[in-house]
Every structure is written in structure tokens, then in C-alpha cells.
Amino acid sequence: MENQNQLIDSFGRVHNNLRISVTDRCNIRCFYCMPSEDVQFVHRSKIMSFEEIVRFVRLVVPLGVNKIRLTGGEPLVRKDVPELVKMLAAIPGIKDIGITTNGILLPQYAQQLYDAGLRRINISLDALNAEKFKEITRRDDYEKVREGIKSAHAAGFDPVKINAVSIRNLTEEEIIPFGRLARETGAEIRFIEFMPLDADNQWEREKVLFAHEIQEIISQGIMPLVPEEQHDKNAPATNFVFEDGIGRIGFISSISAPFCMSCNRFRLTADGKLRNCLFSLDETNIRELFHTNAPDEQILEAVRNSIAAKKEGHEINTARFIQPDRPMYSIGG
Ligand code: SAM
Ligand code: SF4
């Protein structure tokens, strides 16, 4: 039966997918996300507790939310994330829990996360070369991420997805090695176009390495890619397989082919602010509503109003675009 309470915005998009940032802290410093130093983190006392996160999820499940992804900052630097996964997995109506992680702490946590009920894992890795990794992340942890990927496979995650941000004049040489990795390990590589969410405001359109260019490099250097039938029409990635059927590649073309019109996501930041879009300039303070003992109906009304106010798209490709004050690490990617 159709749920009459679904979170539908004014463009008819149904929102069932909640991304929860569990912390804004991180153990590395990717230049496209965080400043190199003097990072302003939210004080620990202002971070949503696990109980508050669970309370919020329980409230929005009757509105049709059934998919959750934990993110950050680096979600695994927060203590006891497998416990949170267990708490979320126990909520009736939650069908799917995922995590996006830089992978460094996976050797410690992959199995616990799997056992707690997590099934979807995206590991971020932009280079298959330790020096380039260090240039991007300002840290020397390449081998740890590679170990993390192995731990995810060993724990039973299938597929393991790898997110690689693509940046012009920086990551071109990584494309063919990633293509080969997809073929050799079965990991799904997803190339993400660089978005204007960096802390240093250094984003420029010229720095975006576009999906169609990457596709061309792979087709020339390995073999042609053929489009895969899209099972989830709300998925941000457009998926391809190599012509011989071995190896999958996805493209998240946020700049060259925005998927805003099929977006089904909204976000809760680590400090409890609800955002209807990564690029939104407005937020709804859920944590404050909790702390002022607002009744559930008032909180639900605030959620509905936030979704109703969602804009048609992100406007990056227009002169109207304004980069949000919060960089990616502070929103939760
Ligand atoms: N720390 C975790 C990680 O890196 O996977 C989770 C949070 S991170 C903000 C989530 C995703 O956003 C990562 O895949 C990261 O590469 C991506 N990301 C961060 N800043 C970005 C930007 N400016 N443009 C495109 N993707 C970005
Ligand atoms: Fe940390 Fe992820 Fe941002 Fe890199 S992209 S600095 S790993 S939060």
C-alpha cells in the first residue's frame, strides 16, 4: 500500500534515503574536503548522541525512510560505530545500511561492521600510488587503505565499492590502474567529479576531470565500456561494464550530468542539522528541537518543511551558484 506520509518535495521526488554524519573529525586531510590545518571541529558536547540519531531515524521511518548511510568526517574515528549499526539495524523498516569510509580503520572494524548488519561499503581512494595518495590526503596512509580494502573483502562485503575523486592535472594517471583493479579484484570503481565543497574554496570548473573523458581514457587504454542496465533509478552513479563482462566502473557526474532530478537523499549533520541537499544554504536544527523537548509532531513538521523547500537542483553550472559555508567534511558526503 502506498505510504501517504512520504517525504515528497515540490518536484515530486520521494525521499527515502538518509545520510547520517556521525562525526566531522577525520584522520586524514584530503585537500578537496578539509583545510590542511586549524580545522574547526564541532565540540564533542554538540554532536548527536547515538540515542538521538536512533530517535530521529525512528521518527522518519514512518515517512518512508528505509535506507541509511553513515558518513562523516571519517565515521570510523567515532567510537563504537558497529554499536550504532546494530541499533539502526534493529529499527523495523530500515532495509539497508551503508557506510562511506576512507578505509584506514577497516582492518579493525570491517568484520564487526558486517556482523552488526552493515552490507554496503564504499571506500574512498583517489590514487593507486602512495606518493599521489599523500599529495591528495596530506597523510602517509596509502598502505593502510589497501589493507582496509582487503579487510572489507575478507569480512564478506560484496561488492566493495571504491570512490575515486577525479581532478584534472592530478589523477589522470590513476585511471588505467583503477580500471585494472576493477577487473582483477571485482571491486566496483566509481569516479566522482570534483565538486565545489572544498574548505579552501579552490574549486574551479577547469579542475574537474569529466566522466566522459575518463570513460574515453579507459576505453582507449583497456577496452570499451558498455552501459549496464540501471536497477536503481535513484542511484547517483551511471554504471558500465567492460565489453568482455569483466569489471564494473561507475561515474558520479555531479557536474557534467547532475542527477538532481532523481535525488532521493537528505542529510543529518554530526551536530544535528538537517540538510535537504549537499549544496543547500539552509538547515533545520533537529538537535535543538530535541533539546527543547519539542513534541514529535513538531519535529516531523520541520522535516517535511525542509524537504518541501528543496530546490530543483544544485545550480553549480549557473552564475547563481553559491558555495555552502560548510565544506564536505562538516556536512557529511
Ligand atoms: N571520510 C569518509 C570518506 O572519505 O570516504 C566519508 C566522508 S567523505 C566527505 C565522503 C565522500 O565524499 C568521499 O568519497 C570523498 O572522496 C568525497 N568528497 C569529499 N569532498 C569532495 C569534493 N569536493 N568533491 C567530490 N567528492 C568529494
Ligand atoms: Fe576525511 Fe573523507 Fe574528507 Fe578525506 S574526504 S578529509 S577522508 S572526510
UniProtKB/TrEMBL annotation:
Pathways per UniProt:
Cofactor biosynthesis; molybdopterin biosynthesis
Source organism per entry reads: Gimesia fumaroli
PANTHER family, sorted: MOLYBDENUM COFACTOR BIOSYNTHESIS PROTEIN 1 (PTHR22960:SF0), MOLYBDOPTERIN COFACTOR SYNTHESIS PROTEIN A (PTHR22960)
Record note on cofactor:
Binds 2 [4Fe-4S] clusters. Binds 1 [4Fe-4S] cluster coordinated with 3 cysteines and an exchangeable S-adenosyl-L-methionine and 1 [4Fe-4S] cluster coordinated with 3 cysteines and the GTP-derived substrate.
Record-listed [4Fe-4S] cluster 2 binding positions = C260, C263, C277
Q: Which GO terms describe its biological process?
A: Mo-molybdopterin cofactor biosynthetic process
Quaternary structure note = Monomer and homodimer.
Protein name stated in the entry: GTP 3',8-cyclase
